[in-house]
Design brief:
Its EC number is 2.7.11.1. The protein is an alpha+beta fold. The protein contains eleven helices and 42 strands. It has five domains: 1-43 and 213-395, no CATH class; 47-209, Jelly Rolls (Sandwich); 401-543, Leucine-rich repeat, LRR (right-handed beta-alpha superhelix); 547-582; 585-690, Phosphorylase Kinase, domain 1 (2-Layer Sandwich). The strands form nine sheets. Strands 2, 3, 4, 8, 11, 14, 15, 21, 24, 25 and 28 form an eleven-stranded mixed β-sheet that branches. The protein has a six-stranded mixed β-sheet with strand order 37-41-42-40-39-38. A five-stranded antiparallel β-sheet has the order 1-20-26-22-23, with no helix packed on it. The two termini are 58 Å apart.
C-alpha cells in the first residue's frame, strides 16, 4: 500500500495523511513550487465576487472592503456580522508571507458562546469555511506551551467540530468546511469556549451551491470537510476559485515512484444533467495511477486524537475519468477498509464518473480506502479526485423564528448587552439566554419562549410592543427598572403573569388587561409605580387581596376539614389491617406552594412516577434516590428525604428556591419538588449513564480518554463554582454557603 501525501505542513490537525516514499527531491520540488506561487501572486487580479459570495476578514478594522490579491474575491470587515470579541493582529514575525485574511483575527475571551450571523436564503445549500491562524497574536505562545488549546464550533444550534491548536505551528492555518442547508434567512457560526483556550477566528467564507449538488445534504444532515484531493500533476498547493466556481479547496498531491501522474488537454465531460458534484474539468484532466508492476493503491487519512474514531461516520466520493490516450482495459474494485463498495469498476473514457453510495455514511475507524486491480484488468487503478466528509447531525431545532425576531427587537430597543445573549435564544438548551424560559415539550416543534425575566436590567423608556407578538409568552417580569409612559395593550391570551412593579409608569391601564386581571386570568403587579398614586387596587399592593384572603381563610379550612373527615373514613375502610408504614401522605401536603417556576409534585404523584418507589438508583446524605418516569416519558431522579430527617431540614425550602433559579450546563436541572410534612423530595433530570465514579472507573462498554477526563474535571469545577457565585449574588443579607 502507498499513502497519498508528503506535505511538509499540514493544515488540518484532526486529519493526517500517512507519509510514504517521500524523497528529498520531492520536498525540494514542492518548496520551489511554493516559491513560484509566491512570486506569481504579486500579479493583481481585479474581478467581481460571484453572486451570493460572502467573505469576512475577521478582526479587520478598516471600514471599507478590499479585493483579495490572488482570487479577486471581495472581503468585508466583520463588524456588521458579530457582536463582541476583540480585534487582534498576528505577531509581526508571522506577517510576512501571510494571506491578507490571516493577518488579523477576532478573539472571544468572554462568554461561553459567541456567534457570527451571515445573511442567507432559506432552504439554499451552502458551503461555509472558517479559517484559523493563531500567529501568537497574544504573545502567550499558547500553541507551543504544552497546555490544551481547544475550542468548539457550532453551525447554527448544532455541534460542528472542535478546533485543536495544541502543539500547532503558530504560523500555520487550519480550515474547517461544512456543507449545510440554511434553515432561515441567516446562517450562524458560533465559537464555543471549552475553558481550554480563548476561541478565535481569522476568516469566514459563505458560498452558495446549486440545489442539485450533494443531494444527501438536507435540513437534518450536513457534512463536514474531511479531505478533498486533486490528483495528477498540480502546480498549486491549493486549487480554488476561479478554477472551481464554488471556491472549494482542492489539495494538490505530491507524488513519487511508483505513483505516476497523468494529464490531458482533451475535454473531460459530464453526462448531461449530472450536476451532483460539478468537479471542475481542469481537475478531472489530471489523474494518478501506478507503475504497471503494482496492483492496488490505498488512500489513508489518519484520524487524529481529537475525533472519536469508534463513532466516526464517513462519506467518501470517488471521481474518475479515463484520460489515457490508448484504450487498454482498466478495471478495479473499490473498498472502504475491507468492505467492498463497488466491484469491477471501469472508468469511462474522457467522461466523469462520481462514485458514492447514495449518501450512505460508512463506519471506517482507520479512514482507509483501497482501489484494487481485478484479474482481467491490464492496467492498475486510476483516480482523478477524492472527497471525504464526516456526518454532522442537525438534530437540535432553532427557536421559533417569530420569537427570535421579537426578542431581538427587544434587545435592540433597550440596547441590552448581556454576555450570553448571543446566538439562538433557546437552543441548544445549555446555551439558552439568561432570563428566558423556553418550552421544549413538543419535540418535533421549534422551542417557544414562555417566560422573559428582565427584572433589574436597567431598562429605560417606554414599554416595547414586541412582547405582545410573542404568542406563547406566559410570564413577563420587567420589574425594578426605569420604564416610563403608558402600559401597552398586551392582548396575549397566554400571558398569566405581568410584573411591572417598581418602574415609573403613569399612563392608563388598558381595559383588556384590567378585565383579565379581575377575572383571575392575569396576575398583574404594578406596585411602586406613579400610576398607583391614582389607583388603589389589589394590583397596586404587594399584599394578597383582602377579600380573597378572607374567603380563603374561611373556605379552605372548611373544605379541608371535610376532606380530612372523608379521607379518614376512606383510610379506615381501605387501609384496615395495613401496617403504619402505608399511611396516606396526602393529608400532610403543605397548603402554600412556593412562588417559583418549577413544578410542585404531590406525594401521590411521586408514588406514580416512581412506581411506588421500586427502583433505587442511589443513596446519600440527603436520603434515597429513586428512578422515575414523568407523564410525557421523560426520565427523572427523585431524591427523597424521609420523615426521620425532616425535623432537621429547615433549609429545604430556601434551597429549593435557590436551585430553581440556577441554570448552568454543568448542573443537573431541577424539574420540581415535593413539599409534604411527612416527605420532602427534589425531582431532577435523570442522567442515564450512571454516576461520575462509575464513568471514571470505566468498563467493557465505555472507557474515557485522558482528554475526556480533563474536561470532566474542568466541568465539575465550573458547576459548583457557578452555584456558589450565583447564590452569593442572589443574597440580599447574610448568607451561609455550602461548598
Amino acid at each position: 500500500p502507498f499513502a497519498v501525501s508528503c506535505f511538509q505542513k499540514l493544515h488540518k490537525p484532526d486529519r493526517t495523511m500517512a507519509i510514504s516514499h517521500c524523497s528529498a527531491s520531492t520536498k525540494l520540488a514542492w518548496i520551489l513550487a511554493l516559491l513560484l506561487i509566491l512570486v506569481t501572486t504579486t500579479i493583481q487580479v481585479h474581478c467581481q465576487s460571484p453572486p451570493g459570495f460572502i467573505s469576512i476578514d475577521c478582526g479587520f478594522t478598516n471600514t471599507s472592503a478590499y479585493n483579495d490579491s490572488i482570487t479577486g474575491i471581495q472581503f468585508d470587515p466583520d463588524s456588521r456580522f458579530v457582536e463582541g470579541g476583540l480585534s487582534n493582529k498576528i505577531s509581526a514575525e508571522f506577517i510576512a508571507g501571510s494571506d491578507e485574511q490571516q493577518k488579523t483575527l477576532r478573539s472571544f475571551p468572554n462568554g461561553s458562546r459567541n456567534c457570527y450571523t451571515l445573511p442567507s436564503t432559506t432552504g439554499t445549500k451552502y458551503m461555509l469555511r472558517a479559517t484559523f491562524t493563531y500567529g501568537n497574536y497574544d504573545g502567550l505562545n499558547k500553541t507551543r506551551d504544552g497546555s490544551l488549546f481547544l475550542f468548539g464550533l457550532h453551525i447554527g444550534v448544532n455541534f460542528w467540530e472542535a478546533v485543536n491548536m495544541t502543539n500547532w505551528d503558530p504560523s500555520s492555518t487550519i480550515w474547517k468546511e461544512i456543507i449545510t442547508v440554511a434553515p432561515a434567512n441567516s446562517v450562524s457560526v458560533c465559537l464555543i469556549n471549552f475553558g481550554s483556550g480563548t476561541p478565535f477566528v481569522s476568516a469566514l467564507e459563505l458560498r452558495p451551491l446549486q440545489d442539485l449538488m450533494y443531494p444527501f445534504v438536507n435540513t437534518s444532515v450536513s457534512i463536514s470537510y474531511f479531505r478533498r484531493i486533486r490528483f495528477g500533476a498540480a502546480t498549486d498547493f491549493i486549487t480554488r476559485f476561479s478554477l472551481d466556481p464554488y471556491d472549494r479547496f482542492w489539495e494538490g498531491w505530491p507524488f513519487t515512484y511508483p505513483w505516476i501522474p497523468l494529464n490531458t488537454s482533451s475535454r473531460v465531460r459530464r453526462l448531461p444533467g449530472d450536476n451532483t458534484f460539478q468537479v471542475p474539468e481542469g481537475i478531472l484532466q489530471g489523474a494518478t495511477t501506478l507503475d504497471t508492476n503494482y496492483s492496488f493503491l490505498e488512500i489513508s487519512v489518519g484520524v487524529g486524537p481529537n475525533l472519536d474514531a469508534k463513532n466516526l461516520q464517513l462519506l467518501p466520493i470517488f471521481h474518475f475519468a479515463e484520460i489515457n490516450s490508448s484504450n487498454p482495459s482498466r478495471r478495479f474494485d473499490i473498498y472502504s477498509n475491507d468492505e467492498l463498495l463497488f466491484a469491477d469498476f471501469s472508468p469511462s473514457r474522457f467522461q466523469a464518473d462520481s462514485m458514492h453510495q447514495n449518501g450512505r455514511f460508512l463506519h471506517n475507524p482507520t479512514a482507509t480506502f483501497r482501489l484494487s486491480k481485478t484479474r482481467r484488468s491490464r492496467l492498475p487503478p486510476l483516480i482523478n479526485a477524492f472527497e471525504l466528509y464526516s456526518l454532522v447531525r442537525m438534530d437540535n431545532l432553532t427557536t421559533d423564528s417569530d420569537d427570535v425576531n421579537y426578542i431581538k427587537e427587544v434587545t435592540k430597543h433597550y440596547n441590552l448587552a448581556r454576555i450570553n445573549w448571543n446566538g439562538d435564544p433557546c437552543s441548544p438548551r445549555e446555551y439558552s439566554w439568561e432570563g428566558l424560559t423556553c418550552d421544549y415539550s413538543k419535540s418535533n416543534q421549534n422551542p417557544r419562549i414562555v417566560a422573559v425575566n428582565l427584572s433589574t436590567s436597567g431598562l429605560k423608556g417606554g414599554l416595547v410592543i414586541s412582547f405582545m407578538n410573542m404568542v406563547s409568552l406566559e410570564n413577563l417580569d420587567l420589574s425594578h427598572n426605569n420604564l416610563t409612559g403608558a402600559i401597552p395593550d398586551y392582548q396575549i391570551k397566554s400571558l398569566k403573569v405581568l410584573d411591572l412593579s417598581y418602574n415609573q409608569l403613569d399612563g392608563p391601564i388598558p381595559d383588556s388587561i384590567l378585565q383579565r386581571s379581575q377575572a383571575g386570568l392575569l396576575d398583574l403587579r404594578l406596585e411602586g409605580n406613579p400610576i398607583c398614586s391614582k389607583v388603589k387596587d389589589t394590583y397596586c399592593s404587594n399584599k394578597k387581596k383582602k377579600t380573597s384572603t378572607v374567603l380563603i381563610a374561611v373556605i379552605v379550612p372548611v373544605v379541608l376539614v371535610s376532606l380530612l373527615v372523608v379521607m379518614g373514613i376512606l383510610w379506615k375502610l381501605y387501609w384496615k389491617g395495613k401496617s403504619g408504614d402505608d399511611e396516606d401522605y396526602a393529608m400532610y401536603e403543605e397548603e402554600t406552594p412556593l412562588h417559583i417556576d418549577i413544578r410542585r409534585f404531590t406525594y401521590a404523584e411521586l408514588k406514580l412516577i416512581t412506581n411506588n418507589f421500586q427502583s433505587i438508583i442511589g443513596k446519600g446524605g440527603f436520603g434515597i434516590v429513586y428512578h422515575g418516569t414523568l407523564e410525557n416519558g421523560d426520565e427523572v431522579a427523585v431524591k427523597v428525604l424521609m420523615e426521620t430527617s425532616i425535623a432537621e431540614s429547615t433549609d429545604f425550602l430556601p434551597e429549593v428556591q435557590t436551585l430553581s433559579k440556577v441554570h448552568h450546563k454543568n448542573l443537573v436541572t431541577l424539574q420540581g419538588y415535593c413539599q409534604n410534612k411527612k416527605c420532602l423530595a427534589l425531582v431532577y433530570d435523570f442522567m442515564p449513564r450512571g454516576n461520575l465514579q462509575q464513568l471514571l472507573k470505566g468498563g467493557d462498554d465505555y472507557s474515557l480518554t485522558w482528554e475526556q477526563r480533563l474536561y470532566i474535571a474542568l466541568d465539575a469545577a465550573q458547576g459548583p463554582n457557578f452555584n456558589y457565585v450565583f447564590t452569593f449574588k442572589s443574597c440580599t443579607y447574610v448568607c451561609i454557603h455550602k461548598v
